[in-house]
Design a protein that fits this description.
binds adenosine-5'-triphosphate, ABC_transporter-like_CS, Alpha-Beta Plaits, alpha/beta, four-stranded antiparallel sheet, 2 domains, AAA+_ATPase, ATP binding, nucleotide-binding, 10 helices, 34% helix, ABC transporter ATP-binding protein
Length: 298
């Protein structure tokens, strides 16, 4: 549905997108994962025709991005785009008018989207009386009201408490189950892991790796992660490397990538010469993949 090929964008001499290439198929939730400044918002602004790339190709439904393709896209920006003194329904009415919905479709779509984001009972409440989580859900409703084919959610849970975050995740899962195509940008790895069919890891305006979680796992030289707490870290590293483990640090945690899964008994035998405060085996997660993939490109 969305095809992006060799997109480049620079602000003066600063290259922000460098041959950016990725596709999103219909019905897919694609996660664009990147740290602050990776180029996520710039990419979104180009997709929405708010910004022009210096060169490259970008199409939606095989049509080059233009004013005409705006109707295919719904965007929930990072900062809520809502009128605080207007009610939920009035906000949706305003945006539905911008998209040119007729009276009947508009009325119907306001009800449908308020129901989808679980705010029908707050239809007449002014936005300023809603919680932060509710406002974020309404911000997503604005993106849905004109029945777009592609919905862009730009860091939809940033700044929300965990309960509100769970509500947004549930909402995104529902939209996914309805077959909506979604581009989700986030720097929250567990968010991408939970919600996305495919993930692109973006750094300095380049996709460093892309695929489903299981495809990305194959890029990692390990089957399992071992987190070890010991007062004798140097000795632990020497022992581990002799056994073919790969040493990594995630924050202050001493961690090893194990090329093959081992029984805990076998692991304890390997480290039996040093004191161990704690040891835990974990499956490879997106967090580990992200660090592995981005570390060589810092
Ligand atoms: N109008 C601008 N003029 C100059 N530089 C800009 C402009 N907009 C963005 N940048 C720079 O381009 C880079 C990419 O920014 P962008 O906002 O696309 O990143 P992002 O991945 O969305 O980051 P964040 O998660 O912080 O929103 C950053 O280094 C940013 O400082």
């Amino acid at each position: 549905m969305l095809r992006i090929k060799n997109l480049n964008k620079a602000y003066k001499t600063r290259k922000v997108l460098q041959d950016l290439t990725f596709n999103i198929s219909s019905g897919e939730v694609y996660g664009l994962l990147g740290a602050n400044g990776a180029g996520k918002t710039t990419t979104i602004n180009i997709i929405c025709n708010l910004l022009h790339a210096d060169n490259g190709h970008i199409t939606i439904n095989n049509q080059p991005i233009s004013e005409n393709t705006k109707k295919f896209i719904g965007i929930a920006p990072q900062e809520n785009l809502l009128y605080k003194t207007l009610s939920c329904a009035e906000n949706l009415n305003f945006f539905a008018d911008i998209y040119g919905l007729d009276q009947q479709t508009k009325k119907q779509q306001i009800d449908v989207t308020l129901t989808a984001v679980n705010l029908l009972d707050r239809a007449n409440s002014p936005v300023e009386t809603l919680s932060g989580g509710m406002q974020r859900r309404l911000n997503i409703a604005v993106a849905l009201v004109h029945q777009p084919q592609l919905v862009i959610l730009d860091e939809p849970t940033t700044g929300l408490d965990i309960e509100a975050r769970y509500e947004i995740w549930e909402l995104i899962k529902q939209l996914k189950n309805q077959g909506l195509t979604i581009l989700l940008t986030t720097h929250l790895l567990d968010e991408a892991e939970r919600l996305c069919n495919r993930i692109g890891i973006l750094k300095n305006g380049k996709i460093l790796a892309e695929g489903s979680l299981s495809e990305l796992k194959k890029l990692i030289p390990g089957e399992e992660v071992l987190v070890l707490k010991t007062t004798q870290e140097e000795e632990a590293i020497a022992i581990a490397e002799k056994s073919g483990f790969i040493t990594r640090r995630y924050g202050s945690d001493l961690t090893f990538l194990l090329p093959n899964p081992l029984e805990l008994k076998e692991i304890l035998t390997i480290f039996d010469q040093i004191p161990i405060d704690s040891i835990s085996r974990q499956p490879i997660r997106l967090e580990h993949i992200y660090v592995e993939i981005t570390k060589g490109d810092r």
